[in-house]
Specification:
Largest sheet: 2 strands, antiparallel
Number of helices: 12
CATH topology of the largest domain: TerB-like
Distance between the termini: 28 Å
Shape: globular
Number of domains: 2
Structural class: mainly alpha
Helix content: 55-70%
Number of strands: 2
Radius of gyration: 19 Å
CATH architecture of the largest domain: Orthogonal Bundle
């Protein structure tokens, strides 16, 4: 995720007035909307900007596109948002994202807000995020590729920029520590404990009820975990 710029200023200038996404924010009226924020009309729900909500709506549409919800893609989205926005509001953000996953909110409205208010470099980052999301636990499907291509076009991210983003993602060699969700500073016993949890989560015998496509994605993830752990083991013990 290091290739992303800080998104902290991405929500500046976003207003609640006239945005259909306010219907989603309305679920939290009286409980999550802080009085000060409401008076200032800053477009936040207890620290969660309207830009983030629009990003969640777009991500939810992508995740649900193939008819199977990938737990890996859901976790990737939540981790991404908490990394690039204020992690202190992770709980509020998680609840908002659950609403996005449960209902098909207006994709055109969400994209329209990003197109209208975001700077071009932010729009490019949105497309890069969608590509990373679609490939986080396997190869991107043709349907998701076309979906992102359409979103990119609507956000005025041209074909050349989109091809460059995809090429970067395809050529990117995953960091072995990032695959396991650990850091190089962690001790070998700590890494081994994390590895064992991942093995239990992604082992084929634990995912027999998943669809054939989902099982293929999980199998690739399981293989990546195994290979990454063996390399780390050699580094730590070597």
């Amino acid at each position: 995720m290091a290739k992303y710029e800080k998104w902290l200023g991405a929500s500046l200038g976003w207003m609640l007035t006239g945005n259909p996404i306010v219907g989603l924010l309305g679920f939290f009226a009286g409980t999550l909307i802080q009085s000060d924020d409401k008076k200032k009309n800053t477009g936040t729900v207890k620290g969660v900007s309207e830009f983030e909500v629009n990003l969640m709506v777009i991500a939810a549409h992508l995740i649900k596109l193939d008819g199977q919800i990938s737990a890996g893609e859901v976790l990737f989205t939540e981790k991404f948002l908490n990394t690039h926005f204020d992690e202190a509001y992770a709980d509020e953000r998680s609840r908002l994202f659950q609403f996005c996953m449960q209902k098909d909110y207006d994709l055109n409205a969400a994209c329209g807000q990003v197109r209208m208010y975001a700077q071009h470099n932010t729009k490019v980052q949105v497309v890069r995020f969608l590509v990373d999301l679609a490939t986080c636990d396997g190869e991107i499907t043709e349907r998701k590729n076309y979906f992102i291509f359409r979103i990119a076009g609507y956000l005025n991210v041209n074909d050349a920029e989109y091809r460059k983003i995809k090429l970067e993602r395809i050529e990117q060699v995953p960091d072995i520590y990032e695959i396991l969700g650990v850091t190089v500073e962690m001790s070998y016993p700590e890494i081994r404990a994390t590895y064992r949890k991942l093995v239990l989560k992604y082992h084929p015998d634990r995912n027999k009820d998943a669809s054939e496509e989902e099982r293929k994605k999980l199998a690739r993830k399981f293989q990546q975990i195994q290979e990454a752990y063996q390399k780390i083991k050699l580094e730590k013990e070597g």
